[in-house]
Each structure stands twice: as structure tokens, then as C-alpha cells.
Amino acid sequence: MQAVMYDRFGDESVLSLREAAVAQPARGEVQVRVRMASLNPIDFKLRSGILRMLGRPKRPAITGKDFAGEISALGAGVQGYKVGQRVFGSVDPLGGRGSCAQFVALSADLIALTPEAVSDEIAASLPVASGTALQSLTDIARLQAGQAILISGASGAVGATAVQLARSIGARITGVCGTANLDYVRSLGAERVIDYKTEDWLRPGQHFDVIFDAAAAASFAQARPLLTTSGFYINTMPRLALYWAALVARATSRQRCVPFLLKTDAALLARLAKLAAERVIVPHIQEIVDLSQVASAQRRMRQGKVHGKVCVRVGA
Ligand SMILES: NC(=O)c1ccc[n+]([C@@H]2O[C@H](COP(=O)([O-])OP(=O)(O)OC[C@H]3O[C@@H](n4cnc5c(N)ncnc54)[C@H](OP(=O)(O)O)[C@@H]3O)[C@@H](O)[C@H]2O)c1
What we know:
By secondary structure, the chain is an alpha/beta fold. It folds into two domains: about 1-115 and about 285-315, Quinone Oxidoreductase, Chain A, domain 1 (Alpha-Beta Complex); about 130-260, NAD(P)-binding Rossmann-like Domain (Rossmann fold). Helices cover about 30% and strands about 30% of the residues. The strands form three sheets. Strands 3, 5, 6, 7, 8, 15 and 16 form a seven-stranded mixed β-sheet that branches. A six-stranded parallel β-sheet has the order 11-10-9-12-13-14. It has a three-stranded antiparallel β-sheet with strand order 2-1-4, with no helix packed on it. Helix 2 (about 120-140) packs across helix 3. The radius of gyration is 19 Å and the shape is globular. The protein starts with a strand and ends with a strand. The mean pLDDT is about 95. It binds NADP nicotinamide-adenine-dinucleotide phosphate. NADP nicotinamide-adenine-dinucleotide phosphate binds near residues 214, 217 and 307.
């Protein structure tokens, strides 16, 4: 099969499109013929080798986590799925597996059925970005109607879904993004937008029940004065300092500091599928590239030149 792979950590130049053995499903796994993959910042962070806290992928590795396609084979012991069904999901990349390939094999707990009303590009865009927003706002912060939430990175793939979810919950939303995306974030449902390029978003003169720092642009100490007495600060880039701040906050107050790490499973994916079918979540897809363009797309993402999702067309 064709796959976008790397043998060593580094910048985009380590990626090449080449032949690899077709991924075979082990016990409890399914094999999926990939039609569409989507890219996330985690893909180039893993490829560069900087995410030591998470672990480094075994090499040779295939880049990409998220995909949509159809089941092409079932491993022993898999129940509830049939060959030919449309599914989407997210690969665990540490073993060297990835979604920018014609086939993936992965645990049946890392996929869900794609609803008829949801296209492959929308389904492939959901797992990492929308999963992060959904788990943060509903499972961790338990955001309620009428609560105030501040979302940094509100024009990004994670933040835009967070704005859409917060709007559907009935929260009062302040979005933080760059100048070019202010109208976009307002159109998603933010009551107020702050341009981080011209304003200090850590001084909005208001308190928030939830600060969802999807741009990982602040520290807990900076965000804390803006939180209500039992507010949540969720940061999507876990660092040691954040874990320490989380312990101190828990011991000394009712406020919570949460270094976020996504935990994907079939139940989360099924919730995302339903929200996408109901059009509560509508990912913004900026472009669809092919496998030979993955390296250049990752470079543009790393340079902050992409607004929304990049999908990768893999099969017909
Ligand atoms: N821990 C986890 O499990 C997990 C899961 C998913 C994602 N993440 C991380 O979450 C982050 C966001 O992911 P994404 O896919 O949404 O990325 P993205 O699409 O590239 O979005 C980045 C966003 O950050 C905004 N931004 C940049 N600098 C900022 C600043 N100083 N203050 C406020 N906003 C700023 C950008 O605004 P403009 O473009 O408008 O300038 C854009 O909205 C990435 O670091 C990713 O690795 C972590």
C-alpha cells in the first residue's frame, strides 16, 4: 500500500510517500480501507520527536491519526462490525501506525460508524480536534447553559468546535483568535471576540466558569484571576508546570487546572458522529490535499497558515 512515512524524527523533509506492507488486523482489530485522512498538530509534533512525555512513535512510522473509510477485514474476535461498513476513527500512533495510508489496522474500540448524512471529509475531521473540544467542555468542565466560557484558539480546529458546542449548550462565549478570523469566530456563535494580536485577552474584565485554552497560550497563574471561585482552566498542551499547578489548585481551592490529554474510544466517536449528523459540529475544512502533498500541508500547519482542517484524499 502507499503510505506517507518517516524513518527518523525531523522536519517535513523526513516524510516520503512510499510502498509499505498492508496493515493486517490482529485479534480485536479491524482493517479499514482509508478514503480520507485529516491532519492535526499532533502529527507534526510526533514526527519532530518533541513529545517525549507522550512517548515517541516506533519507526518506520506512518504519519497521521484521523481517518474515515470502510471496513475491509475483521480480525478474530471482533463483534458488531461487518466488512463494507463506513467507519471513522483515530489510530494510536506510538506503534508506528498512521492514517496517511491506503489501509489502517486498529482496535475496534478506536472506530465508530459514519452516519449516512456525514461525508468522509467531515468524519475524518472529527476525532482529535472535535473529540478534544467535546471531552473538555462536557466531560471535564460540564459546561452548563448560562455559564461564561472563554475559548482561546477559537478559530482553530479544536477551538471552533468548542465554540459550536458551547453555543449548542447555551453558554455565553468569549472567543480569542487573530485579526483575520474575528468575523468567523463571531459567526460560529461567540458573543464577544478578542484579537490576541492587538489586545491582552488575559484582561477582559470579566470572570469565567471555564477557560478553555485551546491555543495553550497562557499559564494557570495567568488565567486564575479570570476564573470564578470554582472555575475550570483547561490547557491542551500538558507540561510539567501544569500538572504541578493542578495539584496546588486542587489542594488549595475549588478551582481546577486541567492539563488535557485526549482519551479516544468508541463511545466518544459515536457522540461525535451524532453531533456531526445533527450539524451541531460542522468542522471547517480549509483544503483537501492528496498523499503526495502531506509534507507541504504539515509545513503550512506548523507555520500557523492553516485555518481549520486539512483533509487528505487517499482512496476513491
Ligand atoms: N492534549 C491533547 O490531547 C490535544 C488534542 C488536540 C489538540 N491539542 C493541541 O491543541 C492545540 C490547538 O490545536 P488545533 O488543531 O486547534 O490547532 P490550530 O487549528 O492550528 O489552531 C490554533 C489556534 O490558536 C490561535 N492562536 C495562536 N496564537 C495564539 C495566542 N497567542 N493566543 C490565542 N490564540 C492563539 C490561532 O488563531 P489565528 O489562526 O486566528 O491567529 C488558532 O485559532 C495544538 O497545540 C494541538 O497540538 C492537544
